[in-house]
Write a structure and sequence with these properties.
With about 250 residues, the chain is an alpha/beta fold. It has two domains: about 1-40, no CATH class; about 45-250, P-loop containing nucleotide triphosphate hydrolases (Rossmann fold, 3-Layer(aba) Sandwich). The protein contains eleven helices and six strands. The chain has helices at about 1-10, 15-25, 30-40, 60-70, 120-125, 140-155, 165-175, 180-195, 215-225, 230-240, 245-250, and strands at about 50-55, 90-95, 100-105, 130-135, 160, 205. The protein has a six-stranded mixed beta sheet with strand order 2-3-1-4-5-6, sandwiched between helices. The radius of gyration is 21 Å and the shape is globular. About 30% of the residues are buried.
Length: about 250
């Protein structure tokens, strides 16, 4: 029964117990181990679609590369817009070793070509995403606020990600500022901006796109895992590189 014990540990117990009882009632215990093996591999067929939005220069491409464990020259590497305005149209990427996990790097609103409005939102096909990341390298803008409200109306899980925390810390050190309180100050400012925008509470995470040990990358991953149902959570977890302590812990 070791196989059964190990598998149930990683699954929702009530659902698993029900499936096993129904299988035994129909076919007995003879093929139970094969049934368990099949169920434990369901994650391989799970499809996950992730939407990543924000203004040009917010660090979306860098985040995508880090999240998928890719370096420049690797297949599927997302070009980083050092000159700004790199995302001129939505681009789809996949996880390195799992094509069932897709990312859409969407064009942020607020540009001449992509103004706020129902047509813009309709073009994004938000309904297909399992969750949405709204990324910015500065405070919560009016465009961010409008976008967040629209996503919340649709009932989609939404995370606000403030990027480039490593750059902020470097600048603080150059200016002789103690960086210990900077994270808390940024979180407070973001929370105030969100509140002033009239948006219900949004989970806010301050991260570095290059160094996952800096800021809230672990917390972000933990909340993402909570958002997904069991099979999709397993699919994402097993497909991720060892990005952070949280990912390694979950993998273990």
């Amino acid at each position: 029964m070791n196989l059964l014990d190990n598998w149930i540990t990683g699954q929702d117990f009530e659902h698993t117990h029900k499936d096993i009882k129904e299988f035994i009632a129909q076919k007995g215990v003879e093929f139970l181990s094969e049934f368990i093996r099949k169920k434990s591999n369901e994650w391989k067929d799970a499809k996950i679609q992730i939407g990543i939005f924000g203004e040009s220069g917010s660090g979306k491409s860098t985040f995508l590369n880090t999240f998928r464990g890719l370096k420049r020259g690797d297949k599927g590497f997302a070009d980083q817009g050092y000159k700004g305005n790199s995302t001129k149209k939505a681009t789809t990427y996949t996880m390195k070793d799992n094509p069932n996990i897709t990312f859409t790097d969407g064009v942020g609103c607020g540009t001449i070509k992509y103004e706020r409005g129902s047509e813009y939102i309709k073009s994004l096909e938000i309904e297909k995403f399992d969750f949405v990341l709204l990324m910015s390298n500065k405070n919560f803008s009016q465009d961010d606020a409008w976008f967040a409200k629209e996503i919340r109306i649709m009932g989609k899980p939404l995370f606000f990600v403030r990027t480039k925390f490593d750059e902020i810390l470097r600048s603080a050190r150059v200016d002789g500022i103690n960086g210990e309180n900077i994270h808390e100050e940024i979180v407070t400012v973001c929370a105030e901006n969100i509140k002033d925008s009239g948006i219900p509470t949004i989970s806010t995470f301050i991260i570095s796109n290059y160094d996952t040990t800096v800021g809230d990358f672990d917390k972000l991953m933990g909340e993402i895992f909570k958002t997904l149902p069991q099979t999709k959570r397993e699919a994402l977890l097993y497909s991720l590189p060892a990005l952070s302590h949280q990912v390694i812990k979950e993998k273990k």
